[in-house]
Structures are given as structure tokens and as C-alpha cells.
Amino acid sequence: MILISIVGTVLLWLLCRWRLRRRWTVLGLVLTVAVSVGAFQLWYRDDELYNRFENLELFNEWVPKEKAASYGFFYTFVHSITDVLPDPPEHYSKERAQEMLAQYPEGNIDTKVNVIAVMLESFSDLSVLEPMGLQADPYAALREIWAESCHGTLLVDTLGGGTINSERSFLTGFTYPQPDYGHSTESYVQYFARQGYVTEGSHPGHDWYYDRQNVNRNLGFDQYYFSENFYGSRTDAEYAPDNVFFSGVLELYQNRDPDTPYFGFHVSYQGHSPYVATERLYDTEYVERGYLTEASYHMVNNYLGSVADTAENVAAFTESLREDEDPVVLVFFGDHKPTLGNANSIYAELNMDLNRSTDEGFRNFYSTPYWIWMNDAAKEALDTDPAGQGPDIGPYYLMAQVFQVCGWTGPSYLQYQQELRQTLSAIHAEGTYLENGVWTKELSVNSQKLLEKQEIMEYYLKRTKYK
Q: Pfam families of this UniProt entry (predicted)?
């Protein structure tokens, strides 16, 4: 880096001399371009090298602008070129993407019902621990509701973090990696707005966290509520626990205009790591001490105690809408599994297989539950009952599953997703695919063609400013 700076300085000095021969000018320009391109290819676009320069002692890693500043302005600016100008998919053109989308004319929602979706922080089903001695069922409050729902498994892209990957995949249908949403972008929120829905949501965290205050506006939300403008006045805690959170979600729904269909998307905070390692906070013991370290014992039980509390709050919220005269569809899903110990060491103590080269290990690592529930008014309006086993899918397909359950056609991109997921039900960040129920890194020729079409459509929608 120092050498590049010295060479650049010398070249600039030569170029600024009063009487510089033309050939030296040309040579200087050529060398400058060559050195710049070489440095960019070798160093500036290298993610691993870039991450070594992270300095979070004076900056907040959850504020995108501050995290970028921690690397230094120039380094961040040059490195970000790869994000601003990513390589397009093979055979991509704007015209081709538009032609592909035009093959699926957008469908209207003829029978409108209210939709409330809730993403639950670190909510996962650890029932696989049962053979090892799960002493109580933290999901007991949800068992009957799951039986009434389309209940399945999400195969998310991260463990213990990366909340916004699941969150924004659900709202857009986009696969990993997510763009920065620096401009208004097509999304399912935008689609609901086009269909005459009011679109709002809430999160008991801060508005700057993951830049949600700006991103959610660019995704099409009419209003979004955070700790600063809603939950902070309802609790003394920095982050509202689930009893306050679900009370707020219900309040927002009940304060809606009853003559306008409603789409709400809410993100909880309770359940976020770290989990107390020095004492058990809940009366119920879910996992015995056994071979666990004392710290691990407390952390696992405190996590599962939080899950049980979340389950009870979800159940109470659901029951409050069961007899509602207005039709409402509820969608719940976990964003990722929890962080348990350093490098998730507690999973190993629990003998959970996290070997991602096997089907069982991959699912243990990346799976979370989802369920789609309807009150009686929605069942009658849509003439359907969602109860049953749902497919294993990535979070980018969850809205497509909601639309299928409701009997809606939806926007163009979602329609193609309905086709694609019949063959590729997961397109994972690790470069692994669930093709016809089997994990693989090598797709068949037919699946490659299907994926290429999806990539072209997605690239176009990600990069095109929504009007």
C-alpha cells in the first residue's frame, strides 16, 4: 500500500511539471491506470483483507455509515465499487430481464384480507434435543396453533446473526446477498401498496439499526415504528420484551382504517443473544446439567425459557384475533438459530450434528420454523384452510408460500418463484442448492437454466429504481 502511494505521488508530481513532454504524460497515465487496476484487483476488492482493517473501538458496527468509517473513507469507497457495480449474471441485459418478467402479468388480489407477518428473533425449534433429555416443552403453547397452520421449515442463510438476510429476503424474494437498498426498490411491500393496502410495521430496536429507517422506506412501507417513535414510551427497557412488543403490534392493527386492507411486518427483539451464563432466570428447567458446563447449562435454559415466553405471547396474540370479524392471515418465522457459546460451542456439547456436508447437519445449522395461520373470517373469505405440512423452503420463497395458501397470483417475480421452487426449493448462500429434495452443489442442466432466469430477473429488480 505504501509503495502504491509513493508511486502515485511521484507520477502526479511528474504530470504537474510545467514543461512535461507528451510521451511522459502518456506513459504516466498508462502506469497510473495499470497500478490502480492492479491494486484494485489484488487488494481493494479482497473481502478477507478488507475485514482485517475493521476498527470498531470508536464506531458502532450496527450503523452502516459508522462501520464503513471504521475502515477509513478511501479504502471503504474503493472497496464498495464491487457492491455498487456487481458483475451481472451471464447473458444479462435489461431488455431480456424485462421480457422475462413480462411473461408473468401481475395478478390483482381480488379477495383482500389483512396480513400480519412477524419475524421472531433467534426463534428456532430445538426439539431435536428431546432424545437427549429435553425436560419440558418450550413450544407447548404453540402446538395447537401449529396444527391449525401451514407449518414448515425455513432454510435460512446464517446462524446466530445476519437477521436482515432473512428479513429482507421475505420482503423482496431476493436471494443472498442482499443489496444495500439505497434507492426505492421493487418488493412485496410495494406490491401490497399497489393493491391498495396500507403498509406499516414495527421493531422495538433503534431506527438506525441496520439502517431500517431508510431501507424500510425504500421498500415501500408507509410507516415504520421503532423504539424512538413507539416502543420507547411503552417500556423502561432499552428493547421492548415480547409482551410489550405484541401488545404494540395488536395496537397498530386495531388502530388501522378498517376500510383499507392492511399489511404489517414486525420484527421482535426478545431472544437476541447473549444469554445469561451465571444463573438460570426461569423456573422451568428445559435441559439437565449432565455433561454441560455450568455456563452452558444456564445459557441453554435461559434461551429456551425466552423461547417459551415468546411462544406464550405468540399464542395469546393469535387468540386475540381468532374471533376478529375482519379476516386476517398471520405469518410467523424465525430469522436464524441462536448463538450458543463461543463459535457456537454449546451445540457441540449438546451433541447436535452441525456438519454442513450432511443433510442432517445442514438442517440443524440453518433451519428455523415458519407457520401461516388464518382466523375463521379469513378461511371463509378465501375459502381455504391452511392446516397441513408446508414445504422446506428458503426465506425468499416464504411470501410465495403465503400467496399460494391464500390463492393469490401476485406480482411477476413471485409467479416465477412459484415455478422455480418446485425444482429448487433452496438457493443457499453457501452455494448449495436443494434440488428436487436433494442437496447439491452441481445443478442439472435444466436447473441451471431455471436458476439463470431467476438471477437475471433478480439482478434487474435489485438494480432498478422503483417508480
A: Sulfatase
